[in-house]
Batch of 3 targets.
Target 1
Amino acid sequence: MAKDNNYDKIILGIDPGTNIAGYGIIGITKNAMQLISMGIFDLRKETDYANKLKAIFEKCTQLLDTYMPDEVALEAPFMGKNPQSMLKLGRAQGVSMAAALNRQIPVFEYAPLRVKQSVTGKGTATKEQVAAMVNVLLKIETKHSKLDATDAVAVAICHHFMTSGKPVKQKESYGSWASFISQNPDKVK
């Protein structure tokens, strides 16, 4: 099926999960980003873990075939207190990645801290703050019932920022006045 749209690029962002996974699809033009679709895969009714992974693969494949994104951006699993949770998230991410690679679509991965920082300017932003900035950046007023959906849109936006040649600058951090001077000798006379 040929692409029929007015976008220079379509990006699918995925916030992997084995109970609830979020997805967000944005279209990029020369002058703007536009939300195409967002939602969740609710996998809580599926009791067999292997079938959850199969469902993630199938749902991702369906999104890929429907929206034909040029690139897929995934949020990387993070190490929390429970290593078992990270393992499960890694598997969910892996099947999402496999679905994209099966369709020959390039895949990019971003740490949660990088996603939050690129969208809000603050790596410690809450899910609610990320959702609010997604609304601002895309000029929409959506209140999705699951923040996993807006997190996925944020992953797509982060990917756009990181690959557009205009990434959001991180705030510089200096441990002391001496470290500031050593890193910025031209600013001190």
Target 2
Amino acid sequence: MGFLSGMDISGSGLTAQRLRMDVISENIANVDTTRTEDGTPYTRKYVVLEQRGSFADVLKRSSEGIDKTGAAGVRVVEIGNDTTPYELVYNPTHPDANEDGYVQMPNVDITQEMVDMISAYRSYEANVTAFNAYKDMAVKALEIGK
């Protein structure tokens, strides 16, 4: 495990949380989109994250000299589509209404998106704090040699 691997770990978390915020923003922006390119309502997207090596595995590989890259942190596995059914809203004047007057609305729940946004923001904030703490420790370590 390299000296600056802590920064790499925090950096991977920052990148993953930024992508989560982008996907959440897209979901919120399309909360009323009833027709996409394929003719269906917008489908909510979500991000799946995966841990890159457990702490114990990374520490063991590093201490045995097997892996000097310190591949730890988090990575995005996929951006999936939510399978929650679309909500039917009665609005017979809407251009996308069916013969019964119902419109299929996107499966985006604004409350859930806001909760996810707060979670992503707090995770991003925690990674920034960890990155800055690691940076401060590195600076202090370099000052020892003066």
Target 3
Amino acid sequence: MSQATLHVLQTCPFSWKVRGLVEHLGLDVAEVQVNAMRTKKELSFTNGWNKVPVFTDENGEVVVDSTPIMVYIDENYNNSVLTQSSGEERYDSMLAHVDEAWKRATIPILYGSLGAALSTTRRVSKLEKFGFISRRLYAWAGFPIMWGIIARKRVKKDGRTPKKLWHDLLTEYTESFDGEPFFGGQQPNLVDFAAFGYMRSISPFKQFKHLEEHEKGMNWYNLMVQQLK
């Protein structure tokens, strides 16, 4: 029986979702950093998925897509403790909302202005696994694409600044706790770890300071940090 593995990109929010759960449970999982420019080749064993994260358990079972991976890990390594509320409207609707709205909010906060995009791409080029040429190419050629083609369009369509968008998401989320410290109650559930992963993926970047200005959001975030082993 081999060791379980998790193929990731260091700055991928979907990877951060699963990494947080793995850390929380203290699982013995080998993390494999994928070359950002060679995902198709390095993830060829997924039969065409070609995206991170990818989880492979000790028996060689391959699971793809972040939320299904989290559910699989909770079911097989944690007696489904974090997914007990699965099937309930409150749980299912918030998990779907986090996976859609929070996912879409990550690019605007990181690439929503020309300066932010340049800062982010340069940071990504240092954190991710690139070749010598591709690292420099991404650092200096990537930011006009991420800002001009993707992020600016999303910001314009939403109508809010990236900071306001995130503050609204955090307010909406923390107000759904009904006075408890987590969405899951006294203890976090899978929804909390999904939301935490998206927010945590921004923490290596200077734009995280905008999220730190949301008091209730940071109170919850810091409690989530304490859940990691």
